[in-house]
Sequence to fold (161 residues):
Amino acid sequence: RTDADHPARQPVLATSGVEGPSLRMVVLRGWDADVAEIQSDRATGKVADLATDPRAALLVWMPADSLQIRLTGRAELIHGDRDRWAKIPEGPRQVYGGTPPPGTPMQDPADHNPDPDPDRFTAIRIHVTRADILHIGEERHTRARFDRGMDGQWTGSWIAP
Fold:
């Protein structure tokens, strides 16, 4: 969605790494034909996790609708794409690069030196293969699951909540 305030714009990304499952909030940068796109610094744990195990999940909670959407699929990592980099405004570019790299312990927040680096910019494209949608109703919960087959077609059914 292009609406910056929409709750689907900031899903939770789940990955699996050497330390087990890992969750973090991300910003959905695009959606195209069953592919969700987020962006990251190449030096982050999420990129390392997905390089090792491309399975990923996104969780969206839409409180006004009492709707939970879980999307699962496989991540594709695209490093240093100059066309995508050119579309990022100067200010937000600060999060892609810098020293020390993400996750490094520091004495003080001022010890981090932003240094935008297009080579550290990574687009993460999650090719969605399953959608699990739960509506939490006051009297009844309803749930449906949709799976994308090898032929690219989606099939779905109601399942018990």
Notes: The CA atoms of residues 20 and 116 lie 30 Å apart. The helical segments are 45-52, 82-86.
